[in-house]
Amino acid sequence: MTDLYRSQRAMRNMRQAAMQRGVVAILDVGTWKVACLILRFDGPERFRADDGVSSMAGQSSFRVIGAATTRSRGVRFGEIDAMQETERAIRTAVQGAQKMANVRVDHVIACFSGAEPRSYGLSGAIELQDTTVTEPDIGRVMSVCDVPDYGEGREVLHAQPVNFALDHRAGLSDPRGMIGHRLAVDMHMLTVDRSAIQNLIHCVKRCDLELAGIASSAYSSGIAAMVEDEQELGGACIDLGGGATGISVFLKKHMIYADAVRMGGEHVTTDISKGLQVSMAAAERIKTVHGGAMATGMDDRDMIEIGGDTGDWDHDRRAVSRAEVIGIMRPRIEEILEEVRERLDAAGFEHLPSQQIVLTGGGSQIPGLEGLASRILGQQVRLGRPLRVQGLPQAATGPAFASAVGLCLFATRPQDEWWDFDIPAEGYPARSIRRAMKWFKDNW
After folding, report:
1. Membrane spanning segments where (predicted)?
2. Which of 225-229's residues contact partners 24+ apart within 8 Å by CB, and which partners?
3. Domain of 154: which CATH number?
4. Which domain holds residue 132?
5. Is 298 contained in some domain?
6. What pairs with residue 262 in β-bridges?
7. pLDDT tens, 320-360?
8. Rounded CA gap, 277 and 261, in Å?
């Protein structure tokens, strides 16, 4: 815990140093693609008091000056599976972005999916020594939070204060300077598999780069694809990636729950490949051009030339109806959405004031997915595209780049984490996420 605390603070310092130099790279390591964006900052960070609790929560104007993507290799279920292949893919993406930007970058901020994330709700309370809340008081109340025993082989990826209460007033975002006697805090802590983080850090170092920050893809996709009202009133972001589907729940502009399903668009492609007996490349083309989630009467008559290069004329000249392709794709899509529904139910999603669900990620572009998701997840479902970022190429504005764009926002406007404060790393018994959700329902 102490090592993690120090390493995260060191990353924060490297991020600040990179921003002062003017450029930093954003790296999205996914199962299907590796994307790299290079940001240039127009000036020093301008801190605003209403952006959060910590002095880290500043805002800086930036623009994208370089972007590159490459086919991901060596990544399965969002986790590194072959180190050399992933290193080669990262080098290709970073070098392409550097060439476009005509600058060299030394520091990257990375995000990844998978790694079996688990969410915990923590709480703590102290009596104030003085009647006015100061920043040391905030650090002190975080230090008494009941940190759970999250087990060996796990690391804390995010630990964010999501709510403060001063005496009988709850729902405070920044209690500094306010007068009271008893200060309480609710925090959300996200842990992931330690080996996934260590492999990513080692892979980035092998590319002669320094890691200046790390985040969950589910979190970064949520802050990019969800509008402000959805993050404020309560909503979930479903990031349908290639090898994993990320789930993040937001309330009061804070992430309060995150999880991942170890299935994604690549599994749909595999089903098409096996069902039609074609190569993965041909299956991906069929899914992208002709795929869908809801069949209509026209689809029985819409024939698709499969093609192939096996040398067997009859096999290579086959044609199937679009309805058959949808019949192969739909069961897997339903399975993914049912898994997502189970995770949301386990998190107590129904307790939120609003149950808006935003679908994003490359897999969300399947035609008819919105209607199918409405039947399984609930009525309030929409497709989300990432916010427009200055300088972003048109090719990188689609849902597949939600996590990369969200990582840009995370880099320039970081959410407060408990390692931004002087907090002793101590552990106490756990508090369940369901109790935390009930607390939110009762007090917000």
Report:
1. none
2. 225/358, 225/360, 225/384, 225/385, 225/386, 225/387, 225/399, 225/402, 225/406, 226/250, 226/356, 226/358, 226/384, 228/253
3. 3.30.1490
4. 118-191+422-443
5. yes
6. none
7. 888 888 899 999 999 999 999 999 888 888 888 888 899 99
8. 26
Cα four-point dihedral sign 47, 50, 55, 58? negative
Three-class secondary structure of residue 120 per DSSP: strand
Strand intervals (E) in 350-431:
356-360, 381-383
CA dihedral 152, 155, 158, 159 (to 10 degrees): 50
Of 328, 343, 364, the one marking the end of a domain is: 328
Look at residues 328, 359, 381 and tell me which one is the last residue of a structural domain.
328
Question: Structurally, how many domains does the chain consist of?
Answer: 2
For residue 113, the 8-state DSSP code is: -
Report angle CA 33, 39, 40 to the nearest 5 degrees.
Answer: 160
- Reduced to 3 states (helix: H, G, I; strand: E, B; else coil), residue 210 is strand
- Is the predicted pLDDT of residue 19 greater than 50, yes or no? yes
CA–CA dist 339, 402 (Å, integer): 21
pLDDT tens digits, one per residue of 239-276: 998 888 999 999 888 888 999 898 888 899 999 999 88
